[in-house]
Structure formats: structure tokens, C-alpha cells
Write a structure and sequence with these properties.
Strand order of the largest sheet: 2-3-6-7
Oligomer: single chain
Order of helices and strands: HHHEEEEEEE
Number of helices: 3
Strand content: 25-35%
Structural class: alpha+beta
Radius of gyration: 16 Å
Shape: globular
């Protein structure tokens, strides 16, 4: 999985590059349970987890290392009396980069709202400026169900 985790960013880390072996094809209208719908629900759960520290629904959609790291940080903040105040992510676009029968790669462009957060009740309040970000989302299909496998920061 990628080394960068979703917002809030605590410190910058370089992200590895990933190539896609499948050829791009035009994105069709997403099925209600298709990969694009899953990405939208995943962003909704990412945003919701930052409101109250409840990360179970978010983790149920993805177990990639970056996602688990993000969830653990959010949960630890709330468990230690901290908080996150943000309007979260707004999806600007989701575009198909490549697809095969059992995998898909998407480019996810978001706007991350500014955030204020405190890692514990005793720590200093910190700020995240927010701004536009682009991510590569790697997905796989198991039967009729899509899963988010990896999430890489493209800048």
C-alpha cells in the first residue's frame, strides 16, 4: 500500500509511483454497487470518521496500510481527548485510468477543506491548510463485490 495516508496530513512522505498494466477505457455510468460508487461511499466514511473518531465503517471498505494508519490516528486522537474539525473532502472528479475483469484503477481528485485538530487533550492545536489533492485508487473485484485495495498520493 502507499505510504501516504488520507487527510489530515501530519507530515509529508514521498509516495511510490505505480504503473497500470491495463489500457484505459471510457468510464461508463457507475452501477450502484460499482467501484465509483464505492469510492464515493469511502470518502463519505472518511469524512464521517473525522467527526467522532468512529472508524469501523471506514475500515470495512478498505484494509490498505495507508487506510489503517489513517484510521488508527483518528481513533487515537479521539480516544486521547483530541478532535478534528473539518468539512472533510469534496470529490471533484473520479476518472478511470485502467480496468480489467477483476481490477480497476481510478484517479480521484478532491478538495480537502482546512482542518484544525488536537492529537490529545494535552497537545497543542494544529492546523492543516487543505487544498486540492489527487490520488490513485486501486481496486479489485471479488465475485460481485468491489474492494478498495490501495490509495496513493499523486500530489
Amino acid at each position: 500500500c502507499g505510504s501516504d495516508e488520507p487527510e489530515p496530513k501530519f507530515e509529508a512522505e514521498p509516495s511510490p509511483s505505480t504503473s497500470v498494466a491495463t489500457s484505459p477505457s471510457p468510464s461508463a455510468t457507475p452501477a450502484p454497487d460499482g467501484p465509483e460508487a464505492l469510492i464515493r461511499r469511502w470518502v463519505e466514511e472518511l469524512n464521517a470518521s473525522q467527526v467522532d473518531g468512529q472508524v469501523d465503517a471506514y475500515l470495512a471498505m478498505s484494509r490498505c496500510d495507508a487506510c489503517v494508519t489513517f484510521a488508527n490516528r483518528v481513533k487515537a486522537m479521539y480516544d486521547n481527548g483530541g478532535y478534528i474539525k473539518t468539512d472533510g473532502w469534496t470529490i471533484r472528479s473520479i476518472s478511470l485510468m485502467g480496468r480489467s475483469d477483476d481490477s480497476a484503477t481510478y484517479k480521484l481528485k478532491i478538495f480537502s477543506a482546512p482542518a484544525e485538530f488536537q492529537q490529545s487533550a494535552e497537545s497543542e492545536v494544529q492546523h492543516f491548510d487543505g487544498g486540492p489533492r489527487t490520488y490513485q485508487v486501486l481496486m479489485s473485484r471479488r465475485g460481485d463485490e468491489w474492494r478498495l485495495d490501495d490509495f496513493l498520493d499523486m500530489g
